[in-house]
Write a structure and sequence with these properties.
Layout: E1 9-11, H1 12-25, E2 31-37, E3 40-46, H2 54-62, E4 71-76, H3 85-91, E5 97-102, E6 110-113, E7 124-125
Parallel strand pairs: 1-3, 1-7, 4-5
Antiparallel strand pairs: 2-3, 2-4, 5-6
The structure holds zinc ion.
Length: 135
């Protein structure tokens, strides 16, 4: 099931986490699905046994059953932050927000695309994911 809810942005901690995992996986690729709460992307669902080649990672995304994902995320060790043809096929089937992070995975080395492969603005939001009783 794909949720087509309006996405306001991504939590800063979640983006930091994505970049960190991209760095630690390098030179291999990682892929995952994005999950949102109240329209803010706060979770990454990792794919078990993601392999190093782009096509494998993308194929594994297709096989994920019944997720509530709003989109996908994967890394490009090539540092080219542009969706491949396989990526575009995936984007059209797995939600409305798709992050590609490119080597060296700094804070500017990522872009977000919509389901048709157009670049969309994904605000990075400073939300607190842990302490719910802070007012
Ligand atoms: Zn790709």
């Amino acid at each position: 099931m794909i949720k087509n809810i309006e996405i306001k942005g991504i939590a800063k901690d979640t983006l930091d986490f994505i970049l960190e995992v991209s760095r630690s996986t390098y030179p291999n690729e990682f892929a995952g699905l994005l999950e949102a709460e109240d329209g803010i992307i706060t979770d990454v669902l990792f794919l078990p046994g993601t392999e190093s080649s782009e096509s494998n990672a993308v194929l594994k995304l297709f096989m994920m059953p019944n997720t509530s994902a709003v989109g996908s995320v994967h890394s490009h060790p090539s540092s080219i932050i542009r969706p491949s043809k396989a990526d575009l096929r995936l984007f059209s089937k797995t939600g409305t927000r798709h992050i590609i992070a490119g080597h060296p995975y700094g804070h500017k080395n990522w872009k977000c695309y919509d389901g048709t492969g157009q670049i969309v603005d994904l605000p990075v939001l400073d939300v607190d994911l842990g302490d719910e009783d802070v007012l």
